[in-house]
Design a protein that fits this description.
Elements (H helix, E strand, L loop, with lengths): L4 H28 L6 H26 L5 E5 L2 E2 L3 H35 L3 H26 L7 H4 L11 H21 L2 H5 L5 H11 L3 H18 L2 H7 L7 E3 H23 L12 H56 L1
Antiparallel strand pairs: 1-2, 1-3
Length: 343
């Protein structure tokens, strides 16, 4: 699929806006239900901040850099210019912001579980995942931050050696794989508890579907992992699975997905983390009530239309009556004047 700056603007703006909407709505739902704010809510604030920063980086990369554009390659070596350097800087900083977003979003979900479920074994499992998530976030944040020393090598590409840079490909893939694994593990934690609750099966299925909204994040993570693998193992594999590009031009759809798929995952992660908290906003709302409201609106519109039509008919009738009265008056006046003249 071809990439373009316009597509990058749309993704950066729309996905940022979605995150800006879902997090405040979470706090409003808590306030509306008079539920005290907790650490699970507070974790979504930095997650929102870093998601928006990622979106800003994408927009900057498209407007000032080569994100969604083309980079010339001469004899298999990139020929960087000022826009290429900006693209590399944006790529570097988004690695940091997306890692922090993933970490805070995972913590928000785990702390939400801890808030609503009880049980000694469950508490141990949740705290274990919290510790793993914190270690994961800190480790990959610094691995991305210090992948090359000094850090300016990350966007200039000058002075890259085995002594001052780690194996970036291995690190990226390790982060992508572990990201998917931790998401699947976190998603699975509440399911046994839900199915052990004493409630109708239909309600258990409903609760399961609510918690499985996080599957959207897993799907985005898997898509990101596929893209990372295709890019990591070289242009040959990428070209075999995606549109072919000229040998002397590095198309944006070779590296651009590395930036925007994590943005997709970040926004969907916040959406999945916040949706289960919206239930108080829809308390008492059912399919029947929605249908009844729609019917009421349609009936009112139909009634208004009927009244308007009746009023229009009455208006025409009054106009015709008035016109006839006016004509009769003019005739009577002319007859009187004629009679007076004759006299």
């Amino acid at each position: 699929m071809d990439e373009s700056p316009g597509k990058m603007y749309a993704l950066g703006a729309v996905l940022s806006l979605m995150a800006i909407v879902v997090v405040p709505l979470r706090f409003y739902a808590r306030y509306h239900h008079r539920t005290p704010f907790g650490w699970d809510d507070y974790m979504t604030i930095p997650a929102l901040l870093f998601t928006v920063l990622t979106g800003i980086c994408i927009i900057i990369g498209a407007s000032l850099g080569d994100l969604g554009g083309h980079t010339l390659v001469v004899d298999g070596v990139a020929a960087p210019d000022a826009r290429t350097v900006i693209f590399q800087k944006v790529s570097y900083w988004t690695l940091l912001t997306q890692t922090l977003t993933f970490g805070f979003t995972k913590l928000a979900v785990l702390l939400f579980y801890k808030r609503i479920f009880r049980g000694s074994l469950f508490t141990v499992v949740v705290w274990t995942m919290i510790v793993i998530t914190i270690i994961w976030t800190v480790a990959f944040f610094f691995a991305n931050l210090l992948q090359c020393i000094p850090i300016w090598i990350n966007w200039t590409g000058e002075g890259v050696t085995a002594e001052n840079c780690i194996d970036e490909t291995t690190m990226y893939l390790a982060q992508a794989w572990s990201d998917v694994f931790t998401d699947v593990a976190i998603l699975s934690i509440p399911l046994p508890l839900v199915w052990n609750l004493h409630m109708p099966t239909a309600r258990k299925i409903g609760l399961t579907c609510i918690f499985l909204l996080g599957a959207l994040v897993v799907a985005a993570g898997v898509a990101k992992l596929v893209i990372f693998h295709a890019i990591a193992y070289g242009p040959e594999l990428y070209a075999a699975n995606f549109p072919l590009v000229p040998s002397n031009v590095s198309r944006s759809d070779f590296l651009t997905p590395v930036l925007y798929w994590p943005m997709v995952e970040s926004s969907l992660g916040l959406l999945g983390a916040c949706l289960p908290t919206y239930r108080p906003l829809f308390a008492g709302v059912s399919l029947e009530s929605v249908v009844a409201s729609i019917r009421s609106i349609v009936s009112l519109q139909s009634l208004g239309s009927d009244r308007s039509r009746i009023n229009s008919q009455y208006q025409r009738h009054d106009d015709e009556t008035g016109s006839q009265s006016s004509t009769a008056g003019v005739v009577s006046k002319e007859a009187a004047e004629s009679g007076s003249g004759a006299m």
